[in-house]
Amino acid sequence: MSSMNFERKLLQRRRYRSRLKYFSQWPELTALLDVLFLALLFFALTSSFIRIPGIGVELPRIAALEVAELERFVVSVTAPAKPGMSCRFYFKDKPVTFEELKHEFFRIPENLERRSIIICADRRVPFDTVTQVMAAAEAAKLPSFIAVMPPVKRSEVIIEK
Predict the structure, then answer these.
(1) CA–CA distance from 24 to each of 27, 30, 50, 57, 58 (Å)?
(2) What is the pTM of this model?
(3) Across residues 77-105, what is the average pLDDT?
(4) Which residues 6+ apart lie within 8 Å of 61 measured at CB?
């Protein structure tokens, strides 16, 4: 009987060791980086990319009360590359001369309800060039508008020299 009591005491004292070890290192960052890049890709693909058609010009900043919603035919006018050179004209993202631009205005169908010409002129383009484009649009019986950017703050209007 004493041997049986000894075995019971031995079983009661026996401790079981776990094979698990304490975590003492930094976790692997591969999985975290994978999730991060997948989230970045998801947000990049689902965000809306709004691109204004036309040639990149630096528009002047002016406070406007309302925005016109019309059939838009965009004319972009870029500043001369060098002093003494003429401005470059683009209609529907294609380079044209001023004479070709006038002919394009007359080719616009008259059956469109709200047809108009939006002039995106660089702020360094001379004003007489912009007025020539507006006069050509008026000769083709098309309303014309000058595209501008809103000011940085609503209360301030930027006037540059």
Answers:
(1) 9, 18, 49, 58, 57
(2) 0.53
(3) 87
(4) 148, 149, 150, 151, 152, 157, 158
Give the pLDDT band of residue 31 (cuts 50, 70, 90). Answer: confident
Distance CA 102, CA 79 (A): 19
Q: Which residues of 139-151 are buried (b: 16+ CB within 10 A; e: fewer)?
A: ebebebbebeeee
Tell me the per-residue pLDDT of 131-158, one tens digit each, with 9 for 90 and over: 999 999 999 888 888 877 766 665 555 5
Backbone angle region of 97, left / alpha / beta, with phi > 0 → left and psi within -120 to 50 → alpha: beta
Of the CA atoms within 13 Å of residue 35, those in its CB half-sphere come to 4
The domain defined by 71-146 carries CATH number 3.30.465.60: no
